[in-house]
């Protein structure tokens, strides 16, 4: 049964003499009264069902218990938001944690705003409200962004306006969904941060991403250390230089003789198959001409 909550401004006396339907029931249950708010109704918990479009899949049990303690102490300060269903009853648009906490406390009623909303409106409101939460992990935010784009037909530009974030921020979150499932799960379990994940996105090879992920977990790498690893992976591959074979004694003798005659530094590079090169250094144009004249 829905009871319209009284508006403010009736005077202190009227508030003090309020009927038992609200205040006495709250006192008997051990909860403080909820501050009156215009447009808020008390709705029976039994007439409310969870949001079928709820984007949040992980409700932290410890945080939920803290909320239960808070409600037990001071009541539900912020009403939930619901929509009226065809045929009766209500569906939650926003405030499922408060709804769950009220169920744990076995409250009969909960304060709620009632809004008109179709399925798409409801989905969008639930997603946007969910995104604004401070305790969401980066993957939950990413999935919510993607769902808003897919189901509400939004572009990244429109999405950034809806959620009040820069487009570059939205793009960075969406890119996280390209990471391997193991890495995404690691983010959800807070084994690595979004900074680590953003660094790993620059690596195209999935196997290398997983190797970096394993190192982050094993060695407790910082974001900066992870970025350094990624830079080294992306650095151009330098072909191995041919290893010089020790110069044979007869070639060394020739080298010593040339050094004495040319009065210049000479470097020999000799390979296993007998090939090689001789590099003659010169100090000036005149010195070069003197060397060349010796070969004429």
CATH topology of the largest domain: Conserved hypothetical protein from pyrococcus furiosus pfu- 392566-001, ParB domain
Q: Give the neighbour order of strands across the main sheet.
A: 1-2-6-4-5-3
CATH architecture of the largest domain: Alpha-Beta Complex
Fraction of residues in helices?
Answer: 40-55%
CATH superfamily annotation of the largest domain = Conserved hypothetical protein from pyrococcus furiosus pfu- 392566-001, ParB domain
Number of strands: 8
Strand content: 5-15%
Q: Span between N and C termini?
A: 114 Å
Discrete helix count: 14
The average pLDDT is 75
Chart the SSEs and their pairings.
Elements: E1 3-4, H1 12-16, H2 23-29, E2 40-44, E3 48-49, H3 61-74, E4 80-84, E5 90-94, H4 96-104, E6 109-115, H5 119-131, H6 138-151, H7 156-163, H8 167-175, H9 181-188, H10 194-201, H11 206-219, H12 223-234, H13 249-262, E7 266-270, E8 276-280, H14 285-294
Parallel strand pairs: 3-5, 4-6
Antiparallel strand pairs: 1-2, 2-6, 4-5, 7-8
Helix pairs in contact: 3-4, 5-6, 6-8, 7-8, 10-12
Textual characterization of the structure:
By secondary structure, the protein is α/β, with parallel strands linked by helices. It folds into four domains: 3-133, Alpha-Beta Complex (Conserved hypothetical protein from pyrococcus furiosus pfu- 392566-001, ParB domain), CATH 3.90.1530; 137-178; 180-235, no CATH class; 249-294, no CATH class. It is 49% helix and 12% strand. The protein contains 14 helices and eight strands. The strands form two sheets. It has a six-stranded mixed β-sheet. It is rod-shaped.
